[in-house]
Recover the amino acids of this structure.
């Protein structure tokens, strides 16, 4: 799983950085800075919760990439299609 | 009027039909270039083989872009982008005002190739005279595609391809979040090819003379010709057609050569690259060469900055303009670009306190690659290359104060400047 932000939709609520501080920090203006790595398996549930909690639905999980060691899941549509 | 050069590598190509005082009508046009042949899906292979890349700035392979749109389902749409948001560029306007049928041939050929019945030809909405002339040019023709001439708001980001698509679908002329990209879901949800008008003009010639003819100009890895808008301290500023791969020094030579001693050259426009004169002179005009020099070829803008101007002050002024021209959609752009503009103004005009360079170094990574479109990235590239080209001068500004160059009249053109 990989996270990305629709920066047009993001209003800088900062909920994601509270729920997933391991991968998301905030810039000086309150907008999320995402770690440029796939979500490790151990954090997948936290990441999903952060995605679900975003008030503007700006945080997106890209399911086409599995976490390390990079095993591709099959039979799912990539949101990047 | 000249005739088009069919000799290997001969120029002019696009500009062969350019007359001195009037737009070319359909009969003149066909006399110069010959009639447009009927093409089909296989024409995309020819465009692929030609090696043509987009002339709007990004330089994406034109054939691949056409294939992307063609492979979608249902009826396709072609959008010809003639908005030319780049203030220092006027080559697209030249094509639209003087050689409209070359662009319209390109629209028709691209539409036949990708399977589109509808096309839009976009130019700035305030340019009502141009829009009326384009309507008249469309009316002169018996096209296989229905072409709608459309005025688009004149903001810098309005001509970004997802912004055009959104505008033509009835939304605001602002970039939208991608994916989906226009070739996947474009105008009214249909697969859409968005191409710069110069790219389409080349397509019109490739349809007539083929890929091998196209490749006979320019180096094998960057074939063809391109239009450049040359300005600044040169003797004959203007629009020239050059072979790709022409060294920048020779491009300035085509424009009459330097009018004063040159310290740096801005290539690619306001999302482009500052190069010190010594680096610029031998550098070939190709995407690869500009990329290896830390920049981008952009839409063919070349501006020669004289030694008596201040590169930092010129950049600060353009960065302020670009900060005001954002779509106002993405936080890092909304807050980051004005902060960058402040820091650049601080460095250029109020230096001497030794803090502006540090401020810029902090801000640049907070803005880069964080917008929905590439607008903020263009600004950071302009600043990074300005700092590199200014070199010791930038440190002098920051620590000792501004150079005498800030007193010189600004040279880089911005909309609203007195012409």
């Amino acid at each position: 799983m990989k996270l990305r932000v629709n920066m047009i939709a993001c209003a800088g609520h900062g909920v994601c950085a509270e729920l997933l501080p391991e991968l998301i920090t905030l810039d000086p203006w309150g907008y999320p800075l995402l770690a440029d790595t796939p979500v490790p398996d151990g954090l997948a549930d936290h990441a999903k919760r952060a995605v679900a909690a975003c008030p503007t639905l700006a945080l997106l999980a890209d399911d086409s990439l599995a976490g390390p060691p990079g095993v591709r899941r099959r039979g799912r549509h990539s949101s990047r299609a | 009027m000249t005739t088009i050069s069919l000799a290997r590598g001969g120029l002019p190509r696009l500009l062969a039909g350019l007359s001195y005082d009037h737009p070319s009508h359909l009969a003149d046009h066909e006399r110069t270039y010959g009639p447009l042949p009927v093409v089909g899906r296989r024409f995309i292979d020819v465009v692929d083989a030609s090696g043509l890349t987009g002339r709007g700035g990004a330089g994406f392979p034109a054939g691949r872009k056409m294939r992307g749109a063609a492979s979608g389902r249902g009826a396709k749409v072609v959008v010809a982008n003639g908005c030319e948001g780049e203030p220092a560029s006027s080559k697209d306007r030249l094509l639209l005002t003087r050689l409209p049928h070359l662009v319209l041939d390109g629209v028709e050929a691209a539409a036949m190739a990708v399977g589109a019945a509808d096309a839009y030809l976009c130019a700035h909405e305030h340019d009502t005279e141009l829009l009326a002339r384009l309507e008249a040019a469309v009316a002169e023709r018996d096209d296989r595609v229905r072409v709608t001439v459309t005025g688009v708001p004149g903001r810098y980001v309005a001509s970004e391809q997802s912004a055009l698509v959104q505008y033509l679908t009835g939304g605001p002329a602002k970039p939208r979040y991608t994916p989906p990209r226009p070739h996947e879901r474009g105008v009214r949800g249909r697969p859409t090819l968005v191409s710069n008008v110069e790219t389409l003009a080349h397509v019109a010639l490739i349809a007539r003379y083929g890929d091998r003819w196209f490749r006979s100009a320019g180096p094998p890895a960057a074939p063809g010709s391109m239009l450049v808008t040359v300005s600044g301290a040169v003797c004959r500023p203007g629009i020239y057609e050059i072979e790709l791969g022409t060294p920048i020094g020779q491009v300035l030579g085509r424009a009459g050569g330097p009018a004063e001693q040159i310290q740096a050259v801005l290539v690619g426009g306001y999302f482009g690259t500052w190069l010190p004169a010594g680096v610029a002179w031998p550098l070939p005009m190709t995407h690869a060469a500009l990329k290896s020099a830390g920049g981008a070829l952009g839409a063919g803008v070349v501006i020669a900055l004289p030694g008596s101007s201040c590169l930092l002050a010129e950049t600060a002024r353009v960065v302020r303009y670009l900060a005001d021209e954002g779509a106002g959609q993405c936080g890092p752009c909304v807050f980051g670009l004005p902060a960058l503009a402040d820091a650049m103004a601080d460095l250029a005009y109020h230096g001497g306190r030794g803090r502006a360079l540090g401020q810029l170094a902090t801000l640049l990574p907070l803005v880069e690659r964080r917008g929905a479109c590439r607008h903020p990235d263009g600004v950071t590239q302009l600043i990074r290359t300005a700092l590199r080209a200014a070199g010791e001068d930038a440190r002098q500004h920051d620590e000792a104060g501004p150079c005498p160059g800030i007193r010189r009249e600004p040279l880089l053109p911005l909309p609203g400047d007195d012409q």
User: Anything to note?
Assistant: Chain B touches chain A through 18 residues (CB under 8 Å). The longest strand of chain B covers residues 116-124.
